[in-house]
């Protein structure tokens, strides 16, 4: 009986140790970016990135916790230590890398131009003198600002830009292609279409930003990302959330 009791105590100690060893990582997410991160009908934060991190956590030994955070100020919150990382379809850019560290890429993205179905526009060059909307502080909005002769209009949420496009207050919207597909092929499939994807010199990738120097969280994220890709779980998630 004594040996059995000791064995039970040792087993419990090992189990408790493994539980305590698993790290909780708090992610800020602007959950207005379907199908990557958004709030469902049951008020839960869901999407491709959420499932990706849940799978990565199981592989690398961390528990992701998501807190809905407005895009405006999300990077300042990371710098201020209000959360450990960001999961909000953040494209890796040289400018952002100066201020924060990024995980390895987990998703490849392009910028898409969305217009009304009866629009003849095939590129930003066809929209000179017209208003084109995008979410402020995103690579899509940066692309609009670089376009010659186009009038950029910024929005706090991409959904608001899509609504204005749908009713004719904008000539077009630029945003990441999975989000563009969600709006143009599903929500507003009868009124909007994807005109084109913008040509760029280099591919654009999503990564998970962490505060500069936070190697512990960065290493766990990279371990999880590598495992998810190695097992092909990312392909399963793309089929679930984005389709073909």
Radius of gyration, whole Å: 21 Å
Tell me the number of strands.
Answer: 16
Could you please say which CATH topology of the largest domain applies here? D-Maltodextrin-Binding Protein, domain 2
Uncertain stretches of 5 or more adjacent residues: 1-20
Per CATH, the architecture of the largest domain is 3-Layer(aba) Sandwich
Helix content: 25-40%
Strand content: 25-35%
How many helix segments?
A: 9
Class per helix and strand makeup: alpha/beta
CATH class descriptor name of the largest domain: Alpha Beta
Rough outline: globular
Strand order of the largest sheet: 12-11-13-10-14
How would you characterize the overall build of this protein?
By secondary structure, the protein is an alpha/beta fold. It has two domains: 2-108 and 205-241, 3-Layer(aba) Sandwich (D-Maltodextrin-Binding Protein, domain 2); 111-197, D-Maltodextrin-Binding Protein, domain 2, CATH 3.40.190. The protein has helices at residues 2-21, 48-60, 74-79, 94-97, 139-146, 158-166, 177-187, 215-230, 233-241; strands at residues 23-29, 32-33, 37-39, 45-46, 62-68, 85-86, 90-91, 100-102, 107-109, 111-116, 131-135, 151-155, 172-176, 192-197, 204-207, 209-211. The strands form five sheets. It has a five-stranded mixed beta sheet with strand order 12-11-13-10-14, with helices on both faces. A three-stranded parallel beta sheet has the order 5-1-6. A three-stranded antiparallel beta sheet has the order 2-3-4, covered by helices on one side. β11 (131-135), α5 (139-146) and β12 (151-155) form a beta-alpha-beta unit. α2 (48-60) crosses α8 and α2 (48-60) packs antiparallel against α9 (233-241). The chain is globular. Residues 1-20 have low confidence and may be disordered.
């Amino acid at each position: 009986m004594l040996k059995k009791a000791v064995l039970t105590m040792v087993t419990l100690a090992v189990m408790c140790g493994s539980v305590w060893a698993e790290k909780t990582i708090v992610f800020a997410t602007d959950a207005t970016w379907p199908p990557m991160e958004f709030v469902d009908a049951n008020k839960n934060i869901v999407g491709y990135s959420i499932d990706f991190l849940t799978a990565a956590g199981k592989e690398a030994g961390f528990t992701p916790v998501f807190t809905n955070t407005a895009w405006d100020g999300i990077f300042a919150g990371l710098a201020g230590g209000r959360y450990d990382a960001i999961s909000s379809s953040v494209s890796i850019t040289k400018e952002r890398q100066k201020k924060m560290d990024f995980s390895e890429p987990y998703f490849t993205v392009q910028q898409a131009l969305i217009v009304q179905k009866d629009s003849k526009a095939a590129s930003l060059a066809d929209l000179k003198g017209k208003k084109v909307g995008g979410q402020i502080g995103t690579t899509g909005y940066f692309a609009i600002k670089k376009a010659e002769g186009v009038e950029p209009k910024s929005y706090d949420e991409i959904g608001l830009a899509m609504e204005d496009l749908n009713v004719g207050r904008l000539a077009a919207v630029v945003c990441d292609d999975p989000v563009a597909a969600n709006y143009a092929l599903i929500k507003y499939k009868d009124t909007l279409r994807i005109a084109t994807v913008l040509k760029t010199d280099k591919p654009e990738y999503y990564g998970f930003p962490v505060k500069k120097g936070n190697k512990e969280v960065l290493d766990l994220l990279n371990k999880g990302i590598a495992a998810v890709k190695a097992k092909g779980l990312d392909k399963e998630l793309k089929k679930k959330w984005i389709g073909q």
